[in-house]
Amino acid sequence: MEAGRIADTYAGYRARLVERLREQGIGDLAVLRAFGETPRHLFIPEALRERGYEDTALPIGRGQTISRPLTHAISLAALSLRGRERVLEVGTGSGYQAALLSHLVAQVFTIERLTQLADRAREGLARAGARNVTVLVGDGSLGWRPYAPYDAIVVSAAAPSVPRPLLDQLADGGRLLMPLGDRESQELVRITRRGSAFNDERLSAASFVPLVGRHGVSDVRYPMSDVRETPDPGHSDI
Fold first, then answer.
1. Mean pLDDT by 10 residues, the chain (238 residues)
2. pTM score
């Protein structure tokens, strides 16, 4: 397949990225294996593909970025995934983290509010061979109730507090990972549900774009008119 052939030309770059992540303290072998198998260059603009395996954030358009690989690795390792989970990702962005998750869990449901980014992510995911990912367009702060409960939820945007719909859609024993705070100061927080209780752990400092939505924050640069209702799931698989 052409996508596989193209991806293989970057195999050495991916191997070096995995080594850098290992040197920076990432010890989860499944997470490292996912980085070794996921073609990051397919999820960034073509003009930047030579920088695809640098450990740095890169612009992807519409004021959004693809996070540095170390940020993704820290987040995925913090979720302690075992391979059978159903996961909700809020903030598809480039689609790269969803592609990483596709190697780590059974099903990935990812929500992106900007149609243009969602379309690009679908294309990248298809080329990367991620067949267990469903991309939805809508307000991620509402979650996606038809597929709930989720064993893990990862939110790739920051807000002052966790949207209540996401807490409600987290399975008992599930983990939710999200940056909390404002534009100037954020912390990456892991929340574990135990029945009706939610236990939180502060993990590290963070810097993410704001979570725009009904239960997030407002952002005049991207009015909510840019968001359309999430399509029927039968029409949103990649």
1. 55 96 96 97 92 92 88 95 97 97 98 95 97 96 96 95 97 97 90 96 90 79 37 37
2. 0.87
**Domain range summary for the chain, segments of one domain joined by +:** 2-235
**Distances from the Cα of 26 to the Cα of 22, 33, 35, 51, angstroms:** 5, 11, 11, 21
- Tell me, yes or no, if 161 is annotated catalytic: no
Q: Which of 67, 94, 102, 156 is catalytic?
A: 67
173: helix, strand or coil: strand
Which strand ranges, in their side-by-side order, compose the sheet holding 86-90? 133-137, 107-112, 86-90, 150-155, 170-181, 186-194, 197-206
For residue 149, list its beta bridge partners.
none
Question: What is 2-235's CATH number?
Answer: 3.40.50.150
Task: For residue 235, give the amino acid letter.
Answer: H
